[in-house]
Amino acid sequence: MSLLLDAILALLVLAAAVRVAAGGDGFARVVAFMGVGLLLGLIWVRLAAVDVALTEVAVGSGITGLVLLQAAADAPLTREREVGLLYHLCAGMVGLVVFAALAVVVLLLPDPAPSLAPDVVRALPATDLGNPVTGVLLVFRALDTLLETMVLLVALIGVWSLSPDRHWRRAPAPLWPAPPSGALDFLARVLVPIGALVGIYMFWAGADVPGGAFQGGAVLAAMALMAMMAGLSPVPAIGGAGLRLAVLAGPFAFLGVGIAGWFLAGAFLDYPEGFEKTVIIAVEVAITVSIAVTLALLVLGPPMGRKA
Amino acid sequence: MSGAVLFASADALLVVAVILPLFAVPVLFLAPSRIAERATVVVLGLSLLVALAIAGGVGRSGAAAASFIGGWRPPLGVGLRADGFSAFMLVMTAAVLLATGLFAMTTPGRSRAGGERMPPAFWMLLASVFSALNLVFLAEDLFTLYVALELLTFAAVPLVCLEGKLAQVEAALRYLLFALFGSLLYLLGVVVIYGLYGTLDIILVAREATASPGFVLALALMTAGMMAKAALFPLHLWLPPAHSGAPPAASALLSAVVIKAPIFLLVRFWLDLAPSTLAVAVAPMLAGLGAAAIVVCSLVALAQPRLKLLIAYSTAAQIGYLFLMFPLAAASSPWSALAWTGGALHLASHAFSKAAMFMAAGLIAEALGHDRIAGLSGVGRVVPVSLFAFGLGGLSLMGLPPAGGFVAKVMLLSAAVHLGAWWIAAVILLGGLLAGGYVLKVVVLALQRPAEPLVAQPVAHWREWVALALALVAVGFGFVPLEPSHFLFIGRPASWAGMVP
Amino acid sequence: MAGLSASDLMLLAAVLVPLVLALAAIKPFVRRRVDVLLLVAPLPGLLAAVAVPLGQSVLVVPSPFRLTFALDLPGAVLLGGAALLWLAAGAYAVCYLRSDPARGAFSVWWLLTLAGSFAVFLVADVASFYLAYALVSFSAFGLATHDDTVAARRAGRVYLALTVFGEALLIAAFVMLAASVTEPNPLIRDAVAGLPASPWRGAILALLLVGFGMKMGLFPLHVWMPLAHAVAPVPGSAVLSGIVVKAGLIGLIRFLPAGTPWFDWGAGLLAAGLFTAFYGVAIGLTQRHPKRVLAYSTVSQMGVVAAVLGVGLKTGDATVPVLAAFYGFNHMLLKGAMFLTVGVAAACPRRRLVPVLVVAAVLGLSLAGLPFTGGALAKFAVKEPVGDGLAGLLLALSAVGTTVLMARYVLLLADVGAGATATGGSVAPGLRVPWAVLSAAAVGLPFALFTAVTGTSLALLFSLDTLIKGLWPVALGLGVAALIYQKPPKFVEVPAGDILVAAAPLARLYQHVRDGAVLLDTLLRRWSTAALALVLLALVLGYVMAGVAFPPHSAP
Amino acid sequence: MSAPVLFGLLGAALSAVGVYGLMVGRDALARILAFNLLGGGVFLVFGAVARRGAGAGFAADPVPQALVITGIVVAFSATALAVALLKRLAALRARPGAAPAKVAGAQAEGTKGRVQPGGDA
């Protein structure tokens, strides 16, 4: 029975994906894409990966969708020459071959499947964490996570670099220049505090149950954006020291803890014995703040020259 | 255990190499730009020292250095490892990037002649590129490599459009999208590998890997992804506009070192990861594409009306030599080591000469206000040092003595001759001829007497000398002995044996 | 490195001093002292040629580089001649370029070419030879194109294109040659010793002959020579035609295996050389400028040398290389002096022209081998191995041709002198003295060297038989010349570079290929093409691997 | 067929759709969307791998899950950067006097003869 449900879910995703790839109006495609993201969130739950599901919905569908929506109107200006029917056919055939090859590989995956789950089980007690995914993210593969925060930071620098140097103390343009309507204003006033609480809880709970810095940060970012859209809060200028410190806090607190690990625990990104959880939570606080701010700023785009 | 001692150990230096450049970013974020600029150059200099220390340690001990992040060993943890080849790449990258930093720096004591000050974003991106490259050269984990490659791409792409012109933004977007396409193909391969072996550590995977359908597909996807990022013909669509449109300092580092990261990984995949039967089967195909790159892109370079485009196409062509190396290096013959050394040497001498050429071209453009080749007549009188740097860099591309390109070419030729790969030898020679064509075309024009007196802006001599220094390093590689290098083979075949977490 | 003897130091100085001077010329105050630069630079080379005992060799940088300098007889002969010509032409150039604002740049090219030419005669290891050869070849470009005229630019382009091509052929040959030796950078001697046993000996020989033959101007690769030699400033032409072409000669001397008969290849080289010898004369006769006549004469003379070397290769006669070097030495000084004569004639007041023409005639007749001149010794030396057969006859006939060509040269020189606008008392001593000294040396010096080089007594030269053998071609040539030039000949001037016009289809082909590449590139740079190519590439890679990993016959 | 296999196949299909979209996409938005689809497919295959690796008390192998979270954030960064570039490009093309999109496109593709790549210096 559940397999039938799964199959229907899969078909829905596929249909939405084909709609996304089929072309046509930009907005419709983006909305279809956000639908794919939400459905994928469900699928991740079905795959017993709730942490991923939260991330997929918050970041992969939500914030990404927000970014993409802004591009929908501009897309026609980047259009290139038409490709012919023959090309479409070729591309379709190639796509089918890609599918076939991948399907064969998926079906031929070894059984029993190799897994690092036992390794994680063995190592997790040393970290004092309850959520194995958080354990992998912040302990066993902390380097990846550190780099990931750097990736966000570099992406932000890249986006800002599209504005000339002299605009670097100004604010990005508001997301939708229209005056805030009463309904949005009301919605925002109600939703923002609730959402913020949810975000903070998600990060806090992340140590032991599904959730964590990325999911929590994404929700917080969404709330901040909503507040700005509703006019509850101005779009900040990117030159402020506080904002910049908030952007830097996550990656560099993490980096600092990593270096401290050399002296206190004997290896880079190792945590001092007995204080693992405390330090990890501290790092997560910093990362959550940075992620929230960075995601919001990435959605807002480069500073446009308006002085805030 | 004393952290201070650990900090200076060769193993810890691997981590330092990755994180040190990142410390320039907060300084740039918070401090006034002039101070931040100096600070960044200091960080670049320190990073070069770190790279040299790693290379020194590897050379002295005769064994690879390794470091496990957080003390967690693979497969659960992530390991960094520097063998001879990695250390070689680290030093080369650090040297080129330091030179780039010096070139881009505001001339000490006065405002920069000609162009404006480089924006803080440039310096932040430069630092990020540095860190990402070091990670690519050191990481043994396929997923960490994915993140490192993305970090590299995101840092490199905005460098293309720092000036914000239409053509540059076009080029940057195209570069980004194609690189992302490649990254995801790579990631798909990584996912399949995890599904097969339950680990992402290259060394552990290599130990278990057999030519199963999954592994074959994974290798194919990863290879194609890296080729897209390396702009190997026929996937070079993004390279000429991106490398030619960027500001000179950015072009230099893009063409010299950024493009080498995916190539480095291809070498790792095919010589460390793949079973040799597969490597031998695929190598001729890689070499065929390399040959096509050399011939087609060199010819196209000859037709270019603008100097920076000419140099960019030359990069697209020179990448081909590194792929020509594969069948020679993959063959199990004593001559493979020579081909390998030749390939590495070509990679390094191309990095230095190409950086020098892009900088020289930038200075020429700055002096004349354009870089149309037809209008370069007599430019040698205006910026002689830059032209000399361009010529010396070109000497290496042409494979003439005493430049590094010559020694590399002789090594590759010798290996090709011994292994009976005549077509590879022929392509190497033809490539030299075509390179001679496009380099000499520019140099000869520049040496002529100008038709009308040239009106030229002054350029900072400081920067001309940086370009010349790079070109001289490229020439210096010509004094490497014509035999397989022992250093490059330190730590091969790769293994974690004897490495303490 | 410790314990360098005086001889070692002299060998090193011959190459290093001009290089250091060239480097020092970066500084403007050094560059302004053209006179010092040009006159000092060749002296160490001259000293080395005269004072260093033959067989001396010095390992400058030890293994694995093995940068080695060595002096052998052919090297010493050519080095000495080259040093003399560099000195005389240098002195001449100091005066000739006195009012040229770009003389500083010219002297830098001059010094680099000089260093390269000395190094070619001295280095004994393969890699350094290639370096020296590249140095002399590429630096000569600067001498040839100094005047920067339209013709000079074209000549420069052709020269560079062929030089780059020649370098590619030679590096291929050297790599294959070195393959037989375990050393990474073998001595030329050791590498060549392995040539007869090499599995690729045919390919190596072909590449060597074409590569070096191009530098010597063997037909049909001579096209650059008349272009380049004619457009350079007079002292530049003198060293280009006198010395730079000898890089090809020393290349053949060093790299052809001496003492091993290779009949087919030897016969081929002999034929190519003889054909070139006559071809150079034939085209040269149609030329209307004395410098171009001289350039074609160089083509012809290098054909003679190549023919002699061909005989040596054919028979395996190990004495031939030394004799060829001696012939080269003779040609070096004569041709240098004759080029300088052109400049002197142009600067000469009409009433003082006759002595100049007399000197020119003596030089020309010497080149043709008139008895009692230095040239006769060179002709005699090479006649010995060639013998009296058909090849010997053709060689003698080529001397007839040379005589006719030289007569043409003197007549054209008279025209140049007559058309000159020079006024004043006489030619500036700065031009006249080096020219006169060089001319005297060209005619006289072979006598001093002959016995040492050939081991034959000079007395043999004055036997009646020898005199007749030397005299009849010159006499016949003069007779023919008199017939032809009774009234001004109506030859259509063959454009310099003659068969270069035949290269036009080649150039068109190149254009098409290049345009095709551009078109292909434009197509490939479309997103749609490249994206499809990327995915296809992944699939093809997978397919190729699958073909190896799961061979069809093992499929269930 | 079990859920992991089904979703693994869906991942393969989604990847194929993404690849197709990347090939035929005419504008930058289409390509960015297709990139995200391909990414979603790749992650889903990874999710199937994780689910198959259930064991030792976990319903799925936690390592791939963590990697997918990282991957999603990286993909978002890529999208944000690409969209910023897209918008800047559109703004530049929309500017009066700028080359219209069609011409700029044609310039990138070339027509007949010796069309050169790149734009103005």
**Head-to-tail CA distance between termini of chain A:** 57 Å
Average pLDDT over all residues of chain B:
91
Number of strands of chain B: 2
- Figure out the total of helices of chain B: 21
Return residue spans of chain B where pLDDT drops below 50 for at least 5 consecutive residues.
111-115
Could you explain how this protein is built, in words?
- The complex is a heterotetramer of chains A (308), B (501), C (556) and D (121).
- With 308 residues, chain A is mainly alpha-helical.
- Chain A folds into two domains: 1-75, no CATH class; 122-308, no CATH class.
- Chain A has eleven helices and two strands.
- In chain A, strands 1-2 form a two-stranded antiparallel ribbon.
- In chain A, α2 runs antiparallel to α3, α3 runs parallel beside α9 (213-229) and α8 packs antiparallel against α9 (213-229).
- Chain A is globular.
- The termini of chain A are far apart.
- The mean pLDDT of chain A is 88.
- Chain B has a domain at 293-490.
- Chain B is 72% helix and 2% strand.
- The longest helix of chain B has 35 residues, at 334-368.
- Chain C folds into two domains: 6-494, no CATH class; 505-554, no CATH class.
- Chain C contains 23 helices and two strands.
- In chain C, a hairpin with a 5-residue loop joins β1 (57-61) and β2.
- In chain C, α3 packs antiparallel against α5 and α4 (43-51) packs antiparallel against α5.
- The N and C termini of chain C lie far apart (70 Å).
- The model of chain C has no long low-confidence stretch (mean pLDDT 89).
- Chain D has a single domain (3-96), classed as Helix Hairpins.
- Helix content of chain D is 74%, strand content 0%.
- In chain D, α1 (3-24) packs antiparallel against α2 (28-52) and α2 runs antiparallel to α3.
- The relative contact order of chain D is 0.10.
- Chains A and D meet through α1, α2, α3, α4 and α5 of A and α1, α2, α3 and α4 of D.
- Chain A: It is found in: Cell membrane.
